[in-house]
Amino acid sequence: MSNEIRPFRIDIPQADIDDLHDRLARTRWGRTLPGDGWDRGVPVGFMKELAEYWRTEFDWPAQEARFNEFPQFVTEIDGYDVHFLHVRPDTAPSSDAATMPDAATMPDAPGVSRGLPVLLAHGWPNSFVEFAELIRPLTERGFDVVVPSVPGVGFSEAPRETGWDAARVAGMWIELMRRLGYDRYGVEGGDFGAYVAPEMAKAAPGDVAGVYIISGLGFPTEKDVPHMLPEEKAQYDLMQQWMGAAVLDHHHVNRVAPQTFAYGWDDSPTAALAWMTHKFNDFATGAFDAVDRDLFLANASLYWFTQSFGPAAWPYYSRGKDAGSGWPEGQKAVPSGTYSGPPGIRRLAERANEIVHWGEGNPGTHHFVAMEEPDAVAADMRTFFDLVR
């Protein structure tokens, strides 16, 4: 295994962009089914307008240039090439045009910032794009920021065999931080990252200062109902509504038949966009009022150009067809904090976590709140990590 860290720059060929536009223009639109609004899925009118915007107005080269302002690298870990962003206060991008990282921005360069390093673990169906707006506020608060791409997502190599789990990814990220020269750091995670971040703490408690979860600790289950206080039962009922039959169960789709659906996701950008649109809306009704449309489409574009829709499903199918969805439980090896408490219940979270910061009243409505309220997330992260550093 090579420990070499290689500079990386995103460079999607114009032919691939043209192909995307051509496929969008040739979409064979289905009929509108009876029902109101989102009752049968993404409304045809909404989908046509969004796809046309993606084809004619969304500017991928501008987004690519923006992402290339972040110092990016690739390194081989556990036999796989891993793509990651490594941004320090002294290497954070300015508003100037994108530039290729030079020797001064390499991870082993002298003059490394003394700010607490923090690794941001992205979720599904997301990528490093989830944190595009969060990185600058974090570096302005003194953090070094590392954002690795999960294997199979974006420019990280996809798994070649089964048997992967959050613990394996956690081990890769621990090695990445070691390779970057960090012996103490914080970890943030939401969605799939809420499984990875606690695993990092359990595997390397001497290195991880604290685990910060966007949401996902102390989620109540049916067995907790008999012992719930009225306000806790209200949180449980809210979760049942969110996880009810009206929500498209991506756990089941990704666990049972991702290969079947990947043919459509990889061949039709409209099918891929509809899938991602539906899930972002499931994660927060009115998602496209909360999350910037171009940021959402940048993530969808990254998945399309790198054919990540199928490979990104592995955290689900690797658990087996008979596995339940399961909530992240956390860990007690190091202190934990959250951006958003409800619908999690602190009393339940404290069964498996040492909670030192329980966010309540923070702004935001979306599951991927870092895309919606990056300044608030950065400020709250600073509050938590100041407690544990």
From TrEMBL:
**Record's InterPro entries?**
AB_hydrolase_fold, Epox_hydrolase-like, Epoxide_hydro_N, Epoxide_hydrolase
Q: Which UniProt keywords apply?
A: Aromatic hydrocarbons catabolism, Hydrolase
The Epoxide hydrolase N-terminal domain extends over 5-131
UniProt-listed Enzyme Commission number(s): 3.-.-.-
Q: What class of enzyme is it?
A: hydrolase
Give the highest taxon in the source lineage: Bacteria
Task: Give the Gene Ontology MF terms in alphabetical order.
Answer: hydrolase activity
Name the family: Belongs to the peptidase S33 family.
Name recorded for this polypeptide: Epoxide hydrolase family protein
Q: What is the lineage of its organism?
A: Bacteria, Bacillati, Actinomycetota, Actinomycetes, Streptosporangiales
